[in-house]
Amino acid sequence: MKARLDAIDWHILKELQQDGRMTNVELARRVGISAPPCLRRVRALEEAGLVKGYRTILDEKQLGYDVTAFAMVGLHSQTEADLLGFEKQVAGWKLVRESYMLSGEVDFLLKCVAPDLQTLQNFIISELTAAPNVDSVRTALTIRKTKDLPIVPIDE
Amino acid sequence: MKARLDAIDWHILKELQQDGRMTNVELARRVGISAPPCLRRVRALEEAGLVKGYRTILDEKQLGYDVTAFAMVGLHSQTEADLLGFEKQVAGWKLVRESYMLSGEVDFLLKCVAPDLQTLQNFIISELTAAPNVDSVRTALTIRKTKDLPIVPIDE
DNA sequence: ATTGAAACGACTAGAGA
DNA sequence: TCTCTAGTCGTTTCAAT
């Protein structure tokens, strides 16, 4: 599963992680090779699944989504079937944008985005807390995001 | 601060959020206008800060970062100066990739990525717990990421 | 605001080192 | 592997609406 990459591949990944819309010629220039092999490397990295996709980062506040919160969810039962059942529920909730299954007392961490507090509270009470197998829910509002780096710590 | 967008702008944001590397002509085709005005709209959205950037999503596991964990940090003092002081520390820790200031008993939620458990534990014990003003640290390992959507819930 | 045309530059296949 | 060349296609400016 682990990939074998040379220095140029790492450099490509580092540049793309920081600017996913960089043109191939600019990328090639930065990593010090000509455009055709650079493009082939990018395609190979996509093919291998190391590059999972390209995403535009939007400003959710300016778009009317003022509230971001984390919900820590404990379940009654943690059998694989029940975990999958809960995941399926999560998949259907539009204001849950990210979900992590955790070890420890909290079973799931859900990142929720809503236009306002009211909408968030309605969701927590009417949907999340009311869902089958949900034992406990603790919610924390985010005051601000204080750091937001691409997920892979490639040395810079 | 809120932006006034028409249906085409929303459509552009929706498409770009899902595929940040789409060409402008393809984007224009999808939203139903010709390329030049489409490009000007995208530039305007970038200018207005609604588009904050473009990012490539990498597979951290394949790249040797097997461990993702969340650290919930409580501080002794929550004066603005002390919060800023902690944020500054956080900025310097390379394996903390995202950080959120929260309301409630937990002051900060840190998303950490490390090559292995050992590295994570070293960080938690030697750096995080040892940092000035840090009161309590609770850590939860992620077993799997069960949902990962772009952050703004544009209806699809 | 938009379209359409045109110049410019990037993308990408192919040939050859 | 790479570089170089060349044709195709995308980007971006501008005139006109």
What's the SSE pattern of chain A?
Answer: HHHEEHEEHE
- Main interface by residue count: A-B, 64 and 62 residues
Spatial extent as radius of gyration of chain A: 20 Å
Which percent band covers the strand fraction of chain A?
A: 25-35%
CATH topology of the largest domain in chain A: Alpha-Beta Plaits
Helix fraction of chain A, binned, reads 25-40%
What is the number of helices of chain A? 5
Q: Mind telling me the CATH superfamily name of the largest domain in chain A?
A: Lrp/AsnC effector binding domain/regulation of amino acid metabolism (RAM) domain
For the sheet with most strands of chain A, the description reads: 4 strands, antiparallel
* CATH architectural grouping of the largest domain in chain A: 2-Layer Sandwich
Q: How are the strands of the largest sheet of chain A arranged?
A: 3-4-2-5
Could you walk me through the main structural features you see in this protein, from its secondary elements to its overall organization?
Two copies of one chain form a homodimer. Chain A has 156 residues and is α+β, with helices and mostly antiparallel strands. Chain A folds into two domains: 7-47, Winged helix-like DNA-binding domain superfamily/Winged helix DNA-binding domain (Arc Repressor Mutant, subunit A); 67-141, Alpha-Beta Plaits (2-Layer Sandwich), CATH 3.30.70. Chain A contains five helices and five strands; from the N terminus they run H-H-H-E-E-H-E-E-H-E. In chain A, strands 3-4-2-5 form a four-stranded antiparallel β-sheet. In chain A, helix 1 (7-18) packs across helix 2 and helix 2 (24-31) packs across helix 3 (35-47). Chain A starts with 6 loop residues before the first helix and ends in an 8-residue tail after the last strand. Chains A and B meet through helix 1, strand 1, helix 4, strand 3 and strand 4 of A and helix 1, strand 1, helix 4, strand 3 and strand 4 of B. Strand 1 of chain A pairs antiparallel with strand 1 (51-58) of chain B. The structure holds a DNA duplex (17 and 17 nucleotides).
